[in-house]
Amino acid sequence: MSHRREQKEALRREREKREAEARAAAQRKRLVGFGAAAVIAIAAVAIVVAVSGGSDGGEQSEGSNFPTGGSVSEQKVFDLDEAASAAGCELESNKGTSREHLADPNKQVKYPENPPTSGRHYQVPAEDGLYNGKPPQDTALVHALEHGRMIIWVKPTLPADDRAKLRALFEEDDYQMLMVRRPNMPYAVAATAWNRDPTPDGTGRLMGCTRWDDGVIDALRSFRDEHRSNGPEDIP
After folding, report:
1. How far apart are CA 155 and CA 162, in angstroms?
2. How far apart are CA 85 and CA 32, in angstroms?
């Protein structure tokens, strides 16, 4: 167990290093050629954001799907099978169906799993982030999975206190993560990922939790650490 924790800690440090380097690079890029025109443009964007409520890779003010003020305890269970079982969650692995890109963002795809784990998808992926309002189309979310992202799907009827805990979990480590609402799924909370093996279509991963239990937090952490950054298309 101690060896497992050391591995998790090493992965966490590596992710934090990548995030710091990415932030530094973005900051340098913003500073190059930053002048009056850029200030005006940013001010205009800020006004639009204030009106629309968008931030953090797609967060919107439409509704209160993920309220602030929640907190989560430190991780106690690190093994995915053990954590999922303790929380009453089911794990599924499904053969990847297709990696075809679609040009039409409104094209509907009937995925065999709900929420989806792989398959045909829109050519532009959904951005990382917490979507506090309307989520992107499934086809854009599936493309994010292909890029190694993990998606947490939450039924809006889950009590607000529990949704606040999920937001706290997301903010604890949001690298290559998305969180969206999903009213029409058979779970209270679910997580999906798309692994690259076996090639070419990989394997879809699903963890579905039909009821809320505080152990769901550790199950999501374990799923994240097991499957994130392992998509068929390696995109930072």
Report:
1. 11
2. 51
Other Cβ atoms closer than 10 A to 102: 18
Structure tokens at 115: 């929420």
Query: In whole angstroms, what is the distance from residue 215 CA to residue 38 CA?
Result: 46
Q: State both tokens at 24.
A: 């530094």
Amino acid at position 234, single letter: D
Distance CA 101, CA 147 (A): 13
Helix (H, G, I), strand (E, B) or coil at 193: strand
Q: Give the separation between CA 22 and CA 27, rounded to whole angstroms.
A: 9
Span 168-219, pLDDT tens digits: 999 999 999 999 999 999 999 999 999 999 999 999 999 999 999 999 999 9
Could you tell me if residue 162 is left (phi over 0), alpha (psi between -120 and 50 degrees) or otherwise beta?
Answer: alpha
On the 0-12 / 13-18 / 19+ scale of CB atoms within 10 A, 168 is middle
In degrees rounded to 5, what are phi and psi of residue 7?
-65, -45
Model pTM score: 0.77
Instruction: Report the distance separating Cα 121 and Cα 145, nearest Å.
Output: 10
Dihedral angle sign, alpha carbons of residues 58, 59, 61, 65: positive
User: 156 near 135, Cβ under 8 Å?
Assistant: no
